[in-house]
Specification:
alpha/beta
């Protein structure tokens, strides 16, 4: 009996190479592309047969075009499409390329496979720079300042397409031949392709197999034969033509309908309230799509509130077995890394120095060992280290084993915010406090009002990114937000780090670790446990932070500083003794207030019309499993990017990309079940089920 697809089916590609240097899949015993000319095959079968050159020439300004593909392979079809897009499409148009891959190549094999295509090398380099590790799920890559995006869906094709939100304008039905890989070319796959098509969506495929032709016809496509490439006699092409095809039913977590967005998209003007990472990333995601964005904040500059710490840790803490929450955090972490590498030069205000997550107890050690044994995460993402290896990585003596995240590190959040706002389509109003927002009945635009009720800005789209302060706005005051006080500490780096001279330490007289690493007195990687400490930056160590649900005190507290020192001492006693010396000068640090939600996931997406939700989904009070296909009603043009807690650096940028995708009616960069878990309306539904409203 055929088992249902799952992450257990997912694995990296295993290749061998023929005498001509062409890659062959060991799993499917098939070549990745034509033995004659793989690039020309992609251009003929996919670009030409979908008539892309002419279609792209006729695109309007700011229009977006979506290609979906059923086998990324070596990425050759994506690269050929990207190259043609640069040549044919209007400068303001955007290409979104979506591709699914069950067995992704590792980066070394990908580079070798693409080596022969010399005219594509500039594009290949950019792809390799952003190519993700082999983690199941969706990975959004951005190129050409947002003009081109690639969403890699790693996993089994049918399963990944089932989780896709959005429609394609053209399909590349690729992959290994039906004879070699019959499990992919199934009626269920063709139905999924149809579900993500509209009545002008085209397709092409290299195969002319009768079961493929019949499957596409049954799914609602008009199918035609065309001359094949090279030695292939025939191939298939066609267009989706069944306007009566049963699409997904609307549910409470469905995205806004076109009628809610059409006018807004035509105007392409938006307001973002809040200049932390969530607000700055939201502004940038829209600006990359040709929107004029006005950002408003009560502070004197960006990152004046919770995003203002000097150093924050950039990594995702992973469970042994992935959960919905950890999948979102991992996707956000990898997305943030790609964005930061594009926007900021390393060593300016960020560093990929790596993060050591130390096992400070036997229980934590067993959890980490379970994570390593289950092999859900590639070594490129995380690997285990013993104390000697940890010491070598940290540059100082470390007494605990742990997990090492080689591409993680630290970042200066204000620096990231400034880089995100560095775009000609973004204008900023600082020192402006917004007291409420409302919709103008005459224009239909959203108004941002000051304490006098005067409108400081208006636009058809408004994104609230003000953390806990969102509860002062009439349309968003019902969200169950809470704030958590956190204090970080900063102390000057006054000299070389003293070793912790305990018997278990292996140090020579000249402070050299027994593994040969010179202990030069400087922490070289971020250390995490029940707290964190970053390598020194601009002459200071930054460490912490406290977690207080019951305090609104904005002043620095010595008790919290001592708590930060005590927590850091469990990580690295020698460093803490140095930080505790009396002649350190005045205590430095910063207080911020994280905003979170009851389920500790952010609120990302359109703001629900609360009264309409309560009325339309009232049956849930009596039957939590009731199927209600009433389309959700939202407050047209209003979105939120809120409640990221302490993880804003790895969740807020991806959340901004989600919101921008929803506004522009693009396919989203996250699986549908994960999108649903972030939906701001979820708390209304929960309250109905629990009969609290």
């Amino acid at each position: 009996m055929k088992h249902s697809p799952s992450d257990s089916d997912f694995s990296s590609a295993q290749l061998r190479w023929d005498q001509e240097g062409r890659p062959i899949s060991d799993h499917y015993q098939d070549f990745y592309c034509s033995m004659i000319d793989g690039l020309e095959e992609s251009r003929y079968v996919f670009l030409q047969q979908n008539d892309l050159a002419q279609r792209w020439e006729n695109l309007s300004d700011h229009e977006h075009f979506t290609i979906a593909e059923t086998g990324f392979g070596t990425g050759l079809s994506f690269l050929a499409s990207w190259q043609l897009w640069r040549e044919q499409a209007p400068p303001s148009a955007r290409l979104h390329f979506i591709s699914v891959e069950k067995h992704p190549l590792n980066i070394e094999d990908l580079q070798r496979s693409l080596g022969p295509w010399l005219d594509l090398q500039p594009l290949i380099k950019q792809l390799l720079d952003q190519y993700p590790p082999a983690c199941p799920g969706y990975h959004r890559l951005i190129f050409d300042q947002g003009r081109v995006s690639l969403t890699l869906m790693l996993g089994e094709a049918e399963q990944q397409l089932e989780k896709l939100e959005g429609k394609a304008d053209a399909w590349f039905l690729d992959g290994f031949s039906p004879a070699k890989n019959p499990d992919m070319w199934t009626p269920a796959l063709f139905t999924a392709v149809a579900r993500h098509s509209h009545t002008r969506t085209t397709f092409s495929t290299f195969t002319a197999a009768s079961m493929v032709r019949k499957g596409l016809i049954d799914a609602g496509f008009s199918v035609f034969k065309a001359a094949g490439f090279g030695k292939k006699r025939e191939m298939l092409r066609g267009v989706f033509s069944d306007s009566s095809f049963q699409q997904n039913k609307k549910t409470w977590h469905s995205p806004p309908v076109s009628s809610e967005l059409t006018r807004s998209v035509k105007q392409r003007r938006a307001i973002v309230i809040g200049a932390g990472i969530a607000g700055c990333a939201s502004a940038r995601a829209l600006a990359n799509r040709g929107w004029q964005v006005e950002l408003i904040d009560r502070g004197a500059e960006a990152a004046s509130e919770a995003s203002g710490n000097a150093q924050g840790v950039l990594y995702a803490k992973l469970p042994a077995t992935p959960t919905s929450q950890s999948r979102f955090h991992l996707a956000g972490y990898l997305y943030s890394l790609r964005i930061i590498r594009q926007l900021l030069p390393e060593d300016d205000c960020w560093s990929s120095c790596g993060v050591l997550q130390l096992a400070l107890s036997g229980k934590e050690y067993l959890k980490q060992q379970k994570l390593l044994r289950q092999h859900h995460y590639p070594s490129q993402l995380v690997r285990g280290v013993d104390p000697d290896q940890a010491s070598q990585l940290a540059g100082i003596s470390v007494q605990h084993p742990g997990l090492f995240f080689p591409e993680a590190g630290w970042i200066n959040p204000p620096g990231l915010c400034r880089a995100l706002l560095d775009h000609p389509a973004i204008s900023c109003q600082f020192n402006c406090e917004i007291k409420d927002i409302k919709k103008d009945k005459d224009t239909g635009n959203w108004l941002a009002l000051d304490s006098e009720g005067t409108s400081l800005a208006d636009a058809p789209i408004l994104i609230v990114a003000t953390a806990k302060d969102a509860d002062q706005f009439s349309p968003t005051k019902h969200f169950p937000l809470k704030q958590i006080r956190g204090q970080v500490s900063r102390i000057p780096q006054t000299g070389k780090l003293l070793p912790n001279r305990q018997p278990q330490d292996s140090l020579s007289k000249d402070n050299t670790l027994t593994n040969g690493t010179q202990n030069d007195g400087t922490l070289k990687t971020v250390l995490c446990g029940n707290s964190y400490i970053s390598p020194p930056w601009q002459g200071y160590y930054c460490f912490g932070a406290t977690f207080d649900l019951n305090s609104n005190n904005r002043e620095l507290c010595d008790e919290d500083h001592q708590q930060n020192l005590a927590n850091t001492e469990t990580l690295i006693p020698s460093l803490t003794r140095l930080l505790r010396v009396e002649d350190q000068g005045s205590q430095l640090g910063r207080v911020g207030f994280r905003c979170t939600s009851p389920d500790y996931l952010p609120l990302v997406g359109p703001v629900p019309d609360r009264d309409a939700f309560i009325e339309n989904y009232a049956k849930l009070r009596n039957n939590a499993k009731a199927v209600i296909d009433t389309p959700p009603k939202h407050l047209e043009g209003l979105f939120v990017n809120l409640a990221h807690g302490s993880k804003g650096m790895i969740t807020a940028p991806l959340a901004a990309e989600i919101i921008a995708s929803l506004i522009n009616e693009e396919c989203c960069p996250l699986e549908k079940p994960l999108l649903d878990s972030l939906n701001p309306a979820r708390f209304i539904i929960k309250d109905l089920v629990q009969r609290t409203i």
